[in-house]
Amino acid sequence: MYTIASFLLRTQANVRETLKEFFRGLMKKDIVDLLLVPQETSSGRSVVYTLVKDPNKLLSPDPVGPLVLVSGATVLSNLTFRDPGAVIGVVLRPCEVRAAIELVKLGQANLSPVLLIGVDCLGTLDPRVYREEVMQTGARALSEQWLTSLRSGLVKGVRSACQICSEVASDAVSVHIGFIGTGPNEILVEVKNSLVERLREATGLVEGTASERSSLISWHKEERQKVREEKLLAWQQSIDDLPRLIAEFATCLKCGNCRKACPICYCKECVFEGRIFDHQSSSYVNWATRKGLIKMPADTILFHLTRLCHVGYSCVSCGMCESACPVGLPLATLFPAVAEKIQAIFNYVPGRSLDEVLPLTTFKEEELEPR
Amino acid sequence: MKQLSVSEKRVAQEFEPKIIAFLCNWCSYVGADLAGTSRIQYPPNIRVIRVMCSGSVDPLYILKPILEGADGVLIAGCHSGDCHYLNGNYKARRRVAMVKTMLEQFGIPGDRIWFSFISASEGRVFADTVRRMVTRLKELGPNSMKAQWEI
Ligand code: SF4
Ligand code: SF4
Ligand code: SF4
After folding, report:
1. Which domain holds residue A115?
2. Is there a contact between A241 and B148 if contact means CB atoms under 8 Å apart?
3. What is the pLDDT of residues B33-45, one digit of tens each?
4. Nearest-CA distance from A362 to chain B in Å?
5. How many structural domains is chain A composed of?
6. Does the residue B36 lie in any domain?
7. What is the largest CA-CA distance in chain A?
8. What is the per-residue DSSP string for A145-163?
């Protein structure tokens, strides 16, 4: 582990301007060549990831706006799967950092050309809810309100995945931008010691801390951990046989959005969309003959159970699956509830550290079941 | 174990479980073959699928038969140090543990899925494994997924 130094950025006009100067400083002083950062769209109705090369085009950075349309980890994988030939600063929320760490271990992303910049997060809104709100207020005002809530540590209406997420700030980053527990004119910046000098020079940081911060964060961690345990246990106890699971998925369209949105489901060609599931007509006829009837399209439960096994050990509880589901199935409870049991077999915590080996790439001579 | 009623006992006696077995090309499949050529008796409940390595059996191929109503799935690979692909057998064991844990959450007994190390010379071990598995599956009774069409 490395030590961290804590700084404050005094916000001049407003937070967005200050962050803009901070990020531009990183680029102008060549600490990073490019920056992957959420920005408000020109329509003022959304916040999306942007890959910025020209610092002057960085106009509306918004790492606070409560919306994640695509996991930053997925974007990071696209950017670093092959060598980008440049250093990229990547601004991520804690669940995205966890997913990024898993993707590195899965051989789908590379952090060596990356400076990870974490931001505080107490949750985001379901994209449908965000859209409703943004139509009333506009993205900018919504982000400003959200920032005020974030400072005081009180947010409302976040996604179910966020309600059970206890990682408010990630430890696995080089630079962290914090808002929780800060005063109205400040932003907290925590920096890995080896970077301090360069960063101070580039961005005008002054030493300082936010006094309320650590108690607010630990309170959130405990509360959410409690909610998580209760919620997952309740689910495990109620959906304890296949008929109940089948009932839960009764309205699944089998559209595959959940797996497309899931950062861990990285396959370029998912087995469910390849030749294996391009069944012969006679196969359907055989299955219908054997059972008397089958549901069409077939294999919905097979898809979900298989996906649970494919992502179970690495599922980081980010809830991207649920946000992408057109019928709002409770995937952000189901996947973590089952994943927790799978991870427990191997004592594995996904997304915590690059040093923890993926359970299925290692083994012990004596373990589990010799029969 | 729970006491079976008389009618349940009759069903249990008549019930012949169907087992899908994934046997690795280098050890377990040869072991099964040896059981056959050495005329070692074992129950005919098993349908064998030869795979190159137990480590190549994706959870998908364990789950599909279970959802289709097979009563058990056996995955067998080489013993310690004998895997042709270094350690596919050990990784398979981990993967099977994962599938079983998940299925148990959904009320499918873990004992429907078996994992074994069976070498090319262990015809007898193979026969014995099948025998024990059939006995256990008879205790568990038929897989209710046979009648479930919404999968
Ligand atoms: S996104 Fe929802 S509806 Fe689509 S396949 Fe996944 S669970 Fe089913
Ligand atoms: S399964 Fe859902 S919660 Fe788990 S990593 Fe994938 S998107 Fe995130
Ligand atoms: S469901 Fe499995 S095969 Fe499909 S994308 Fe996810 S991990 Fe890959």
Report:
1. 4-225
2. no
3. 999 999 999 999 9
4. 7
5. 2
6. yes
7. 74
8. HHHHHHHHT---S--HHHH
pLDDT score of B6: 66
Asked if the Cβ–Cβ distance from B149 to A299 is below 8 Å, we say: no
In chain A, residues with a C-beta closer than 8 Å to the C-beta of B61 are none
- Beta pairing partners, B50: B23
Q: Do B102 and A338 lie within an 8 Å CB cutoff?
A: yes
**CA A318 / ligand 2 centre spacing (Å):** 5
Element (H, E) at B133: helix B123-140
pLDDT in tens, A175-203: 999 999 998 889 999 999 888 888 888 88
Reading the block at residue A23, the tokens are 């990020």
Q: C-alpha angle with apex A281: A278 to A287, nearest 5 degrees?
A: 95
User: Does A265 share its domain with A348?
Assistant: yes
Q: Which atom of ligand 3 is nearest to the CA of A270?
A: 4
pTM value? 0.94
Query: A298-330 pLDDT, tens per residue?
Result: 999 999 999 999 999 999 999 999 999 999 999
Interface test with A, best of B54, B98, B143, B144 (most A CBs within 10 A): B98
Section A337-351 average pLDDT = 97
